[in-house]
Amino acid sequence: MTTLLHWVSMGGYAPYVWSAYGLVGLFLVLQLLALRSFKQRSLRQLSRWFDR
Amino acid sequence: MWKFLYQLASPKNFYRFTQRVQPWVAALALFGLGLGLTWGLVFAPADFQQGEAYRIMYVHVPCAFLSLALYAWMGFLAVLLLVWRIKIAGILLNVVAEFGACMAFLALATGSIWGKPMWGAWWVWDARLTSELILLLLYLAVLITGQLAKQRAEGDRLTAILALVGLVDLPVIHYSVYWWNTLHQGASLRLFAKPTIHSSMLYPLLLSLLGLISFCAWGILYKAGYEVLLRERRQTWVKELCEEKPA
Asked: Is B51 strand, coil or helix?
């Protein structure tokens, strides 16, 4: 437990280290969601185009 | 090799290529990011000067590297589009710009977070930071130009010209730490010289770099594949494909 807390505290730099990793993680997740939404939008557009 | 690249210029072949390689690139991204970041955060030793704060390097350096590499790739695509009028290059140019802008923003943001405990400031008008900010603005200019153009072909041509003009910023970013007296440290990774960091810190960095490069490559292939289908929807192969695989 002490070792885990020591690791999480990052020698006193925890707010900096974790916020940097959190920001990158957040952007990667947002990028994945944006790609999924683009796929669904594209498929809807294509299906409308071929149904005309 | 040239024959393969020549074949990829065809939208149909390019789409098939994106579908074939995507799972492999995604697996490489998961492997690189998973192993590299875990190694960097848990197993790599602390730095003797910066302590644990240096671990921000495992996300900052890959983002910064990609922000430059993706812009260089945009320059190559711009030449393909303007000289050989390859349509795929125009599609890729816009998709690459989106990922490049994200990477430039993340490089600046993570660098700023790293700068606060090390330099005592979130931001300084240092040559490296300022030139990287200019790169982010160039990416945004490319994206806005592509969106504002009335016709796709015209938009692609304008973004290609803008991308070529912006290439001048790349050597400025790279050599800024040597040309000027900057707060930012020199390069830790060099192409033709021995790295300046110990192997216990270098390997996780290389793995994180591989992971983020693969993530961006996967995202670019994924989005470009659907963009090709939208732009080529008048072609019979797209119709046949959509009938085979309904949404």
From this structure: strand
Residue of A nearest to B107 (CA): A24
Interface pTM, i.e. ipTM: 0.93
Reported as a single tens digit per residue, the pLDDT across B12-39 is: 999 999 999 999 999 999 999 999 999 9
- pLDDT for B72 beyond 80: yes
Q: Which residue from B42, B226, B239 is facing A38, i.e. has the nearest CB? A: B226
Q: Which two tokens stand for residue B210?
A: 């591989």
Does residue B121 sit at the A interface (CB-CB below 8 Å)?
no
Q: Which two tokens stand for residue B238?
A: 């797209």
Domain ranges in chain B are 53-188+195-240
Contact state of B59 with A42 under an 8 Å Cβ cutoff: no
Tokens representing A26 are 């957040």
DSSP label at B149?
-
Three-state DSSP state, B190: coil
Q: Is the pTM of this model over 0.90?
A: yes
Domain boundaries of chain A, sorted by first residue: 26-52
Cα three-residue angle B122-B124-B125, rounded to 5 degrees: 145
Task: Decide: B32 and B212 in contact? Cβ < 8 Å.
Answer: yes
